[in-house]
Design a protein that fits this description.
The complex is a heterodimer. By secondary structure, chain A is an alpha/beta fold. Chain A is built from 6 helices and 10 strands. Chain A has a 5-stranded antiparallel β-sheet with strand order 5-4-1-2-10, covered by helices on one side. The two termini of chain B are 53 Å apart. Classes of the chains: A alpha/beta, B alpha+beta.
Chain lengths: 226, 388
Amino acid sequence: MIHIQDLEFAYPKANFRLLVPELAVAAGERVAVVGPSGTGKTTLLNLIAGLLLPQAGQIRLGDTIMNAQGDGGRRKLRRQKLGFVFQDFQLIPYLNALDNILHPYRLDPAAKLDRLARDRAYRLSELVGVSERLQQKPRSLSQGEKQRVAICRALIRQPSLILADEATGNLDPENKLLIMDLLFQCAQDDGAALLAVTHDHALLERFDRVVDFADFRHALEPGTRT
Amino acid sequence: MTSLYLALAYLRHHWIKSLIMVLATALILSVPLVTQGLLDRSQNLMTARAETTPLLLGRQGSALDLAIKALYFRGQSPQASSMATVDEVWDSGYADVIPLHIRYFASGAPVVGTSLDYLDFRGFAFQSGRAFSLIGEAVLGAKVAERLGVGVGQSLVTQPENLFDLTATYPLQLDIVGVLAPTGTPDDTAIFTDIKTSWIVQGIGHGHDDVIAAGVRPDGVVIANAAQRQFARITDQNRASFHFHGDPETYPVTAIIALPYDHKSQTILRGFYQNPDNPTQIIQPRPLIGQLMDNLFRFKAILDAVVVVVAIAALFALGLAVYLSLQLRQPEIRTNYQLGAGRWFSVKLVALELLVLLAMGAGLAWLAGLASEQLVGELVVSLVAPSL
């Protein structure tokens, strides 16, 4: 599903460079990304999502090279192929839970927000246990409920790749396991690959593979800037 | 539709902010709309009134005071002319004349003493009752009747000009014999009587008990009882006792409406009275009121400039509100970007929200304009007619 090769990236004023010689995640595979803070885990997710562009290397999503696309192409890929679960949920405050789940449909002019889409939203919400809270706005939801709604939003368009950036970071231990299991279940049902950044070692044994990010961080030599 | 759905959801969620912005927009837009409406209505009302009154005569003095008093029954009373002038115009054979005596009030409404010709001239229709035919009878304008809640068969009492004038005449009770249909003009706010009735109010005519001579002085002067009763109401029983003192030619009239038979007659009449040494002035209300309206429109230009400045300031304030709102919405805009929203999605969304707010504000301003049209009409009448 994802194949990263010879990836090189550095922020303009940072003193380290992210180097990923090779990283591949197959369809349906669940991969955890671990590593100390500041090693570039979130940067990698942003590179895969096309929010950042590498200085060198290639990020391939299926048959498409993400970093060869223009801004419009990368946005389109995000809309159609990716599902994002953020640590802080990033729900739209003025939309209720149902509209938040359906939001990706509204962002894509090519998508049709029809009965099928709504049925899927209801099914997903039942699966994660928020079907009774669909008319509530985010401010009325608990942290766990917000993250469940965010998971539904990430899955609503059946993405082929789910990117989860510390998706359980804001949750209590009980909810962490529950939410991660739900994410696994939903990803498995849709045959989606899952790449999850996490600091939580208790969750690691549930993943198919763990990538330690410390291997990818390289200090820049003095005077070197990219 | 999707963007509209989201825009409306945002506006609903932040309904207080939306409401404030709609009201601010409505206010900015409605001020020029309403003032324009006010001026248009004033112009129509005042011009129409002036246009239907070809010539006015009165005592030399302020032509504007004369026109405002004769047409709208409002403002300073010009110095009174006399019935001699009425007769003079009548005798000239160039015009029909309608005398107006406008000096007193009853329950806050001006009492207009005139002849029955005035009612025909203005083309009045009656809501109820009939025209005045005897002294002491009055016909009410529609708004006066509505405001006071009185009608045919009831009565009103005239107000003394000065409460502290012990020599003033007694208030006179006026019997209501008719109520006019609404006209949308200052006539709605007036009380019409025969001119003789208004002279009685002034004290030129009066009625009292028969004089019973208490004696005759050696020089032949009859001595009467000082406690003789003066009538404050004209009834069928005492009507015959009412009489006038002095030369009828000297009886006062505030203004005279002259209705020339043709253009030539009008020109001759104007020529006759345009001599500044003549104690009587003649005016054509239309150009005079036109001049007044021109001044009002000059004021409107100043008002427009003020409105533009205020609108610019208000737009800056609204712009600041939108800018701050955009700052607060950065997380939402970033989320949309991360989820793959098109380049112009957020711009379109915000623009649509503003468009909806502007449309609602404009709609509200339009409704305010419509609603104020009626109220403005009332306001104009109250501006040009004595306040009720």
